[in-house]
Amino acid sequence: MSRINWKNKCWVTTVFLVHEDKVLLTWNKNLQTWIPVGGHIDPGESPMEAIRREVDKETGLDFELYGDFKRESDGRVEVVMMHRFQIEAVPHHGEHMNFVFFGKVNFLNDRKETDEKEKLRWFTKKELINESMLDSVKNSALRALEIVR
Is residue 100 part of a domain? Predict the structure, then answer.
């Protein structure tokens, strides 16, 4: 049986959540920039299970993953189309192996910060264009606004 190399790799998942032409980002105090909601995948979790747990914990929002999902009739195969798989060097944290999704929020709540007291902010397209942030985050957030309806 093969084993995943956990030594210098962190397996994570993130989601760009969209609601009424705005996308949700959270302020990361370590990186000092806006990033999508998400976190580490716990042993035994699928990326989809992890992102549902992380979104619930960080935001309390109800959402649906956006994309093509198919479960075969025998229940053994699930095909999930994500936005991308991203490998990123994170200072003092090795490499993040990141499953990146888009999601559509079903209803809003009034939370302004995560469970870890980091800011949550909804961005319009214009605000994203004018805000300083990582290009990968900005480009994915803009793409999410284009396709998630």
Answer: yes
pTM: 0.89
pLDDT at 19: 97
pLDDT per position as a tens digit, 29-73: 888 999 999 999 998 999 999 999 999 999 999 999 987 666 666
Question: Is the CB of residue 131 less than 8 Å from the CB of residue 138?
Answer: yes
CB of 145 closer than 8 Å to CB of 127: no
- Mean pLDDT over residues 129-134, rounded? 95
Nearest to 142 by CA among 130, 125, 121: 125
Sign for the CA dihedral angle at 126, 130, 134, 135 comes to: positive
Distance CA 138, CA 34 (A): 9
- Residue-number span of the structural domain to which 47 is assigned: 9-147
Q: What is the CATH number of the domain that holds 105?
A: 3.90.79.10
CA–CA gap between residue 139 and residue 86 (Å, rounded)? 13
